[in-house]
Amino acid sequence: MKENLFKKALLDPDIFTVTWELVPGRGARETTQDNLLALARQAAAGKTIHALSLTDNPGGTPAMSADFMGIEILKMGIEPLVHFTCKDKNRSALESQLYALDRAGVRNLLVMSGDYPVAGFQGRPAPVFDFDPVHALELISAMNKGMESPGPKGVIRQKPGDFFAGAVVSPFKATEAEQMAQYYKLKKKIAAGAQFIVTQLGYDVRKIHEAFLFMKQSGFNVPIVGNIYILPYGAARMMNNNELPGSVVTDKLLMDLSREQKETDKGVAARMLRAARMYAIMKGIGFNGVHIGGHNIKYEQVQEIIRQGETLAPKWRELIKYFDYPMENGFYYFEHDPQTGLNKETLFNRKAAKASAKLEISYGISRFFHTLMFEPGKKLYGLMKAISRKIAASKLVNLFHKLEHLTKVLIFDCKDCGDCALIDIAYLCPMSQCPKNQRNGACGGSFLGWCEVYPFKKQCIYVRAYARLKKYGQEAQLGQNIVPPCDWDLHQSSSWLNFYLGKDHTAKKQDNHPPGK
């Protein structure tokens, strides 16, 4: 197999890598696909761009397969970076997809939750989200080691894969709970095998610097790539209205873009310069590369950003003043350094900060009964385990399940998955209260603490979970243990019986880590 030139470049500390994002678009033989391939040929011939990033159904609408376009681009002699999302396929389909990519030699993946499905043939499609990005990264890591699976004559071990998989993090969150949820999930992504990190989109230089510092202080020895979007006024207005979840454009930046629109070139030179300045700042801070995107961008424009960015890089500190776009009352993980305009390496004191969500009395009750009944060695644990064994072997099992489900529907809006994650997320159900069923942390689309899918109607469950746990000084739990995907063998069965009989993920985790160990 040929050497992975993108991986080689990104892991080389002397190379500042550049990826360019292309959007395959809807259709098979449309102008969009023809133009994309023409741009790819230019990039392959130019040899200054290290990989071409390909989106997967961006905005939640159908488009040409990023996998197929990646195979086409690979033939041109340049590495594709395929967006690998969890929104449209279950775990078996994702595994099959990985086999096909591996066989085709497409090795670079950017693993994400994906945009919530919005439109499809004859109406809105059903979202899948059987896996979250942490689970997908675990699968990819297992395949890279040579995954084992049961066969008719025993265990079958496959040949190791050669995937180079990265993940995404957003430092551009306004509230403490949202931001911490992003960083806690980042820890899980790296623990699951993420080999590089790409930031979400924003224009606040302190937040850009914060992502780098967080990686450094956490001891994460993986490359970090900064996100640059060549920002026109129309896209900025959509981002400002939260119509492109996860991308942040403040009112102040939108006003600056509005003024630039009045220039004779409609602001083209200004946005090119802004992108070049971001390139220089990211290189100066210590990022390993940049990810350049934009609508209808020409190859020559990307080359010009690289040229200008390299020219500006030696004086990058002088450019910090151009990216003073903080969110109103926005949270920062680090304290401000007024001398540089960036951050000190001192953490902001979060203890006295106001709670980000209402603390319901039901959580205190849930904690009480959890301690009483679900922790080994506590008062009722042994009794409940003995009772559960008797019920499971009797005709009462169905009645017990129905009573449990009714209780949990009323209190937790239970979906009866049988492999309960309430304990993991401060007694909030990711299967019913998170549209993307994220069991390991928030997706990147929340806005001011609100869910991407239900803005200003439902708070992100991880914002609520953070507030609940912080009251007890336990918020760091959200970044500690990877929560496995739901085991659908247990669907519509009693999660309480499954727990006490050692069938669900919580019981298996406790068996592997007995009390006091």
Task: Give a concise summary.
With 517 residues, this protein is an alpha/beta fold. The protein has helices spanning 5-10, 31-46, 66-74, 91-104, 133-145, 176-192, 205-218, 233-240, 251-260, 268-285, 299-312, 361-373, 381-392, 397-412, 430-433, 461-470, 495-500, 505-512; strands spanning 17-22, 51-54, 79-85, 108-112, 148-151, 154-157, 164-169, 196-199, 224-229, 289-293, 334-337, 342-347. The strands form three sheets. It has an eight-stranded parallel barrel, surrounded by six helices. The protein has a two-stranded antiparallel ribbon with strand order 5-6. The protein has a two-stranded antiparallel ribbon with strand order 11-12.
How is this structure best described in words?
The structure is a single chain. It contains 18 helices and twelve strands. With 517 residues, it is of the alpha/beta class. The strands form three sheets. The protein has an eight-stranded parallel barrel, surrounded by six helices. A two-stranded antiparallel ribbon has the order 5-6. A two-stranded antiparallel sheet has the order 11-12.
